[in-house]
Amino acid sequence: MFKTFKNAWKIEDLRKKLLFTLLIIVIFRVGVAIPVPFLDPSQLANMIEGSGNLLGYINMLTGGAFAQATLFALSVQPYINASIIIQLLTVAIPALERMQKEGPEGQRKLARITRYTGCGIAFALAIAYYFLLRNQNAVLYTEGGYGWFTATVIVFAFTAGSMLIMWLGEQIDTKGIGNGISLLIFAGIVSRMGTIPGTIYGYVLGIINGFQGKAEGATSLSGMLGDGYKYYFMSAEGEMFASYPWYYILFLLLILVLAVVSVAFIVVMTSAERRIPVQYAKRVVGRKMYGGQSTHIPIKVNMSGVMPVIFASALISIPGTIKALFQINDGFWSTFLGWFNYNQLGYALIYLMLIIGFNYFYVAIQYNPVEIANNLRKNNGAIPGIRPGKPTTDFIVKVLSKITFVGAAFLAIVALLPIVIGNLTHINIQLGGTSLLIVVGVALDTARQMESFMLMRHHKGFLE
């Protein structure tokens, strides 16, 4: 990938696209730091802390803008939701389905509908976010005319910020390189990774102080951990660090090794595909013979990308968010909602089933085996050993079912492994799998687009 970037930088047209993309990302990061007036977001820290609820998940996607209540607090969430809604409606509404098949003009109409839908969703989310901030006493003025003016400014600021992000993403699509919205999500997640070295340093400091405390014969927690105690370990984690320092050294090394292995695993599985061979029959038209070549239908193992994990994370985080918003701390509902906490076995099992279910659903709306079989028949193509028509459809359905299961298992492993390791080591990496999937997937997609651009330019120069 680094070699691809180096070669791309040598091409003037591609270098301009890369610089334009970097400029948009810089503007995006500047917007993340611009505060919205009349707000004090410090009250949100306790609610968003951790990743066991929807707010922590949204904060991860926004690169920390949601927790700070800045201009880009809603980030790309409204646009993603609008895209998903329109994509699902194209299956259910014939008019939208026809529009999707109309080519570039139909795509422009769908993009316009998606844009208006995203604006409506952004406005609704801005109102909800205002009431959330108001309930947490983060709004400075809530009464009388000042309160109405404050509410108007906050809601329209969040909505405008979301629309600006949508526009920035479209500018990358038009004049830059890569998928605009995905790159903005990528930039937000990577910016949050800047806190990782400090976290690792804190854990290493605690382990070292634990060794020193044990060597000096200290018996209390504060005596064993020394200065590291007041910075990081004023909890049960500190006791475990002090009692079993070698245990945590091994787990810290294991996490670093697993991070590297996970990246390699994601790269391999993202690029993997199942190729169904196709043979086209020969046909004579006049004095010329057409067809007769062999090709294949590529079916990616992870054809749905990270979307099933995003859907599953958002859905399973709703109970935890409800518990935090309404401060339900006792009674039946507290026990019931507690089952959806990320350190519970029930959370992992439900999360697993949701990932598998959403993966099958997403593949089902993307691939139509009947349409693929009909297109093969119209073009005199056939899968070797399989008769045209229904047998071809059944064969494609069978292959899709197997590939989809493998892809779902891959997503489940990447998403659940950080949860298991986090519960064993008490290190907060519950959203690490989702972040890795997005970061690696976007990086690979951008590298492929640069390679395609260079290949197209090479062929064009050769023909000229």
Number of helices: 22
Order of helices and strands: HHHHHHHHHHHHHHHEEEEHHHHHEHH
Describe the largest sheet: 3 strands, antiparallel
Percentage of β-strand residues: under 5%
Supply Rg.
26 Å
SS-derived structural category: mainly alpha
* Mean pLDDT over the full residue set: 77
Which blocks of ≥5 consecutive residues have pLDDT under 50?
214-242, 460-464
Give the proportion of residues in helices: over 70%
Sequence of strands across the biggest β-sheet: 4-1-5
Strand segment tally: 5
Q: Determine the N-to-C terminus distance.
A: 28 Å
Shape: globular
Task: Give descriptors for this structure.
single chain; 464 residues; mainly alpha; two-stranded antiparallel sheet; 22 helices; 72% helix; disordered C terminus
Describe, in plain words, how this protein is organized in 3D:
This protein has 464 residues and is mostly helical. It is 72% helix and 5% strand. The strands form two sheets. A three-stranded antiparallel sheet has the order 4-1-5. The protein has a two-stranded antiparallel ribbon with strand order 2-3. α2 crosses α10 (180-192), α6 (77-92) packs across α7 (94-100) and α6 crosses α8. The radius of gyration is 26 Å and the shape is globular. The protein starts with a helix and ends with a helix.
